[in-house]
Structure formats: C-alpha cells, structure tokens
Amino acid sequence: MAVDALLSARELELLRFQAGRLGGLRARGSSPLSGPQTAWQRGAGLELEDLRPYQLGDDVRHIAWRASARSGRPISKVFRAERRQRILVLVEQHPGMAFATRGELKAAVAARACALIGFAALRQGAEIGGMVAGRETEFFQPGTHLDRALALIGAANRAPGHDYPAVDAAEALAQLHQLARRQDSLYLISDFQHWDDALLASLKQLTERHLVCALQIVDAGEQTLTAVGRLHIRSPFDGRELVIDTDDAELRRQYAAAMNEHQQQLEQLFKRSGMHHQQLFTDRDPLPTLARAL
Description:
Helix content: 25-40%
Mean pLDDT: 87
CATH class of the largest domain: Alpha Beta
Protein name: DUF58 domain-containing protein
CATH topology of the largest domain: Rossmann fold
Strand order of the largest sheet: 5-4-3-6-7-10
Number of domains: 2
InterPro entries: DUF58
Domain DUF58: 50-264
C-alpha cells in the first residue's frame, strides 16, 4: 500500500466484504435510479424484442405457440441480448478534499464510496470504470475484472496534494459524457464546493442519457465557524494565507449564511438537472446511505 494511501489494504478488504450488503444493487426497481434498462445481471441474458413469421432455421424452442394459434401460422420470438450494465464513477480529489474537522478526511470518504460502488458492481457482474480528477485526470475503461476495479479504487485512494487549482468540473463532465454510453449509471463523488449553476447544461446533458447520482461529501463542522479566537488559514489550492477572528459574531453569521446559500443552490442545481442526490458525512459510515442511494 502506498505511503500516501487514504485507506489501508485491510480497510479496502473490509469494504470489499461490506459491498455485499448493498442489496439495492440487485433490485434496481426500488432504487432512486431505477431506469428502463435491466441491470446488475450475471452475464448477458436474452430479452424478447419482437414476434415474426417462422423462418427456416429458427429454434423451435422460440416458437410463440399462442401467437401461432391466433394467426394460424408459425410465429417465432425474436430476442436480443441484454447489455451488461455499466457503472461509471467520477471522483474529484482536489486539494480541498484533504480536509475534515471531524471523522476522516473528505478524500477518504470519497475513496470509501468509490470502493464500495466498485466492489458491489463486480459482485453483481456489472462493468465498473470511470475517472479520478485531481492534479491530473485519470481514466479507467469499464470492465468486469477485479484489476479494473482496483485500478480505479487505487487512484481514488491516493491522498490529494496541495497547491494546484480546483478541478475544472465542466471539463470533467464533458470527458465523462464522452466515456459513457447510453443508459450507463453514473456516480459523481465530490464535496461540490466549486460547483454552480454554470454546470446546469452539462449536467442535463448527462441526465438525458444516463442515470446520475451525486454523492456529496460533507464535513458538518465546516458549515459554521466556532468561536475559538484568531485562526491562521492556508488555502490548499494556491497557498495563500489568511487570518480570521472567529470571535467576531458577525463574521460567523455571514460565513454560516454563505455556506447555507451555497448548499441550497447546489441542491437546486441537482434537482433542476434531474439528478439524485445523497450526502455522505465525514464522521459517519457511508455504507447505510449508499445502500439507500444505490
């Protein structure tokens, strides 16, 4: 395990075991992301597509006997192969994710969520792939083998660095759109602190073709300022330093109002774009929430 890994090999093995508890992946009809495509099947099955007159060489097991009786001539069932479900995950590991006031780092929660989704997909025979956007963006073509999932999870499990810009969300969404094919299920994992209404068109482009869920990593202690005197703060993005007086009640009020306004705008953005939205907190086990979201 790399020295900058957010989660240990032992923790990842436990997550692989826990992924079996994500029963929602096996019953997508009751999932918030239920869609028209049959999903989470072991292998490619057959789905009835049409009925047509019997042709020489047709499998007699596929004769539609009731339709044949009604029409007075042999009718064959035409099947098409079910497409294996694909799951794509976009994980944003920007410098701001290396933060938490309680529990574990936002980045670690994001890695946990990615691992649980990846392992659950494999258990159900789905393809898993996606992107990890940090200092650079890494792409992982979907596959059903463990090494494909581990490559994605390993990239998400690397601790984000410092002193580089936030992820260009618009570019990341455009790249995800190119990687995905129609009716893939997409999971976006981030704190979404830098997302705004300018992304609405990009998100709608995704939801028109895909089932999309935003998994927002939240540190509850970040939502308000506690009165602890003067704080020296350093931006993880550009290294700029700032001193704030947390004993200033007006400053605390303005900060809380700004954080609340951003959260409300974010929730409206997800709603208007047609996405499902769940919050994963840094001081709580993400498994129960993911079981509902998936």
